[in-house]
Amino acid sequence: MVRDRQAVFDRFHIERIRRPQDLRGRFYLGRFTASQPEAMRVVGKSDVPIHELFVRLNPSKPLTGAEIRNAMSGPAPQLFRQIARHDLFLENVAFTMTRGQDLNAAAKLLYFEYSGATKETKKGSLDQFVTDSVRDTKGLELAARKVVDVLDSMSEIFLPGDKLLSSAGVFAVYYWFIRSRSTGDFPFIREFLVRLDSERRANRARATADPNDEDLDQELLQYDRLNRSTGDVKSHEGRFRSLTRRFSKFARQAAATP
Question: pTM for this one?
Fold first, then answer.
């Protein structure tokens, strides 16, 4: 037994040192420098098994759903990447895109367009969309072209680094809303969305001050509640209906203003 607490035994020699952690550090350094990392080369007749291997190996790593989906096989992930390279993502979008948020947003848009309706956009649903559409390259490409057309229109509506596009959670709803409007509405859309955000903030402040205030806009409160569950199809549908109804009123008022 070692009586002196500062005396520690190395595997190869006995050494008296001032701090035991010094020897511990040298031990791990030796283990690290002596290790030989293995490198493997994967060869396949196509990219499909390689993509599948990547997806299987990475669930234990801290990858986002979009990053893992990006490595899945099929035509959809490639189209996600193409859509995410649109100028709207590069110039107008203001939400963070360091962990594949742009790919996730692109996946939602393509899923909506391919389905012809808003859909649940949680991870499992988007992954299933990639799997189910693996053999429909033509249908996906047609939907992707429609997505690009709408994004072209959105690029004309929003400003560079637009604060209105600072949340990825509302991006797909804005897309679906603008998709539903005629080109004659485009000059009014940004002003409408700016005013909507202002009205929502004021309404929330009144609700905080007095939850029983009879003048509270219940539709805006419901819109805020739906914004908390941005992956649910009911959230997409509810917010889209609110935007449509309120914009129609806004457009009528704008047209009546001399």
Answer: 0.76
